[in-house]
Amino acid sequence: MRTRRRGCGVAKRFERLEQIRRMDPVAEATEIHRITAAYEFPWDFTRALELALYRTYAVPSIGRLLAETAELTDRAQKRYDDTSLLLDTVVEHGFASERGRTAIRRINQMHRGYDISNDDMRYVLCTFVVMPKRWIDAYAWRRLSRHETVAAAVHYRTLGRHMGIKDIPESYEDFEAHLDAYEKANFHWDERARTVSDSTLDLMTSWYPRPLAPVLRGATLALLDEPLLGAFRYDPPSALTRTLVRRAVRARGRVVRLLPPRRAPHFARQNWEIKSYPDGYRVADLGTRPVPGVRGCPVRHIGDSAGRLVE
Predict the structure, then answer these.
(1) How far is the CA of 244 from the CAs of 88, 115, 143, 200, 251, in angstroms?
(2) 310 part of a folded domain
(3) Per the domain annotation, does 148 fall within a domain?
């Protein structure tokens, strides 16, 4: 009887995966991605996207711009919140919804105010596709299926098209190859980018009791790869620290595997790390406004003058 109950629980744990495998990963890409991110791996997607955005600072043209705007040094919590909420609004409501279109419009308005290269925009898009899969395959309660991997690539290709990004990779493998090549060519030391990195680490540790800050900072660094640590000139964690931290995160995944499947979706707006909007928010009010004097004469326009979507 005990074995039967456990077997039944394991079967239920994989019911959504079976549902996903019956869906079309291209035609139903965003719905599959929503199930994956909000039901199967909400905690893992949050951590993976944090690290995805974080690693972009090691590209000096990106890190310097973020330092110049001071969004991730003086207003780090709000910038974190707005980025999470805007991206997740599209996942939760879809591209065709009013909220989804408003979120993309705000993203476009934010980027249109600066001279950002297509190469950098495309690279950031690649991190959204590649880093969650790498994190989940390494640490979550199961690996991503092929259907989920294809759906994520299609979802972010669609997002990139709405943002006016050119020459977007076609498949997950193309996204991954482009990310690895871009990082190999562009990860370099930059003092201002290091300032943004330090500020982001401070933000992440601020969510927990202050005495834990040094331990949490060290644990975060233990999850970073050598090229990223080298670009920021951080002292690499000891082999023991790296092993202990990564085993602890994997252990969490094994525990989650034994739990019943999530009954309700969990979106970014429900994350306790989101601090800026205790009384709620309007999607149209999220995000930053261009800072005068910071790459202030945009060469590359995303969307039209009213901030509408690129169709």
Answers:
(1) 31, 42, 21, 23, 10
(2) no
(3) yes
The average confidence (pLDDT) of the chain is 90
pLDDT in tens, 44-68: 999 999 999 999 999 999 999 999 9
Nearest C-alpha neighbor of 83 from the set 103, 67, 68, 63: 103
Q: Is residue 211 part of a domain?
A: yes
- CB atoms near residue 243 (< 10 Å): 12
Domain count, the chain: 1
Torsion angle of the four alpha carbons 284, 290, 292, 293, in this order, in degrees rounded to the nearest 10: 180
Structure tokens at 122: 């495309």
Distance CA 51, CA 175 (A): 17
Strand ranges for the chain from DSSP E: none
> What tens digit of pLDDT does each residue of 288-298 get?
776 655 654 44
pTM above 0.85, yes or no: yes
CA-based torsion, 36, 37, 40, 41: positive or negative: positive
- 297: in domain: no
- Confirm if 223 and 245 have CB atoms less than 8 A apart: yes
Report how far residue 213's alpha carbon sits from residue 219's, in angstroms, rounded to the nearest whole number.
10
Residue 151 structural domain: 16-260
Chain centroid, CA 182 distance in Å: 18
Structure tokens at 51: 């690290």
